[in-house]
Amino acid sequence: MVAWEPDLYRRFEAERSQPAKDLLARIELKTPSQIVDLGCGPATSTDVLADRYPDAEILGVDNSEAMLESARQRLPEARFEAHDIADWRPGATPDLIFANAALQWVPDHATLLPRLLGLLAPGGALAVQMPDNHDEPTHTLMREVAAEEPWAAAFGDPAALRSPLASASDYYDLLASRASRVDIWRTTYLHPMPSAQAIVDWMRGSHLKLFLERLEPAQRPAFVDRYAQAIEKAYPHRTDGRLLLAFPRLFFVAMR
Description:
Helix content: 25-40%
Number of helices: 11
Number of strands: 7
Strand content: 15-25%
Mean pLDDT: 94
Low-confidence stretches: none
CATH architecture: 3-Layer(aba) Sandwich
CATH topology: Rossmann fold
Distance between the termini: 38 Å
């Protein structure tokens, strides 16, 4: 098992926090009393929620003890618990369930999202942001490298490690009949990155972890090096020497 690394995750905190802030800006709730941050990680998104709603009781949920320990150190006034999102149930009825870059790790959205919406108090909001970069070079190249020797045998079908998101219209149809209102949108962020290695480090803190877990520890450095070579070719240097990382994300806010 390749552990989640809070320090590596926080290395790109500004870039990871911006979508949480953009999602929060579209939530119209004025004074929610109970908030749950699903997949809270090291509390970067929980911190954003606490700034917006200082009087709310906030619970952060994650399945990584390393992330939860980092979250407790960062935001001791909030409460953090270890759960898997797929079967999590709240103790108190939440007014806001917030999931920033978390639900893409959880399968069966056709079951999950209606269940989460149904857990809300009347008038509550389910606010979700998910990376929608399955077809970006960061991800396609990962799958291509995984299909090469000597790593192919460890993966079988690399595309099976994580399915792409459904379309925005599919998510709308799933939620619209169960919600009083659905606000859904897609944004592509363009992040100037100092090097190909910085892009690789970003991926090591998220999707690349899935691939490295399939490999023996001795195989991992060569795999990462080969992936870094592919990233270097895919992202040309701009006029200032930086690389421009396109990062599409899907957002929605569904009101109960």
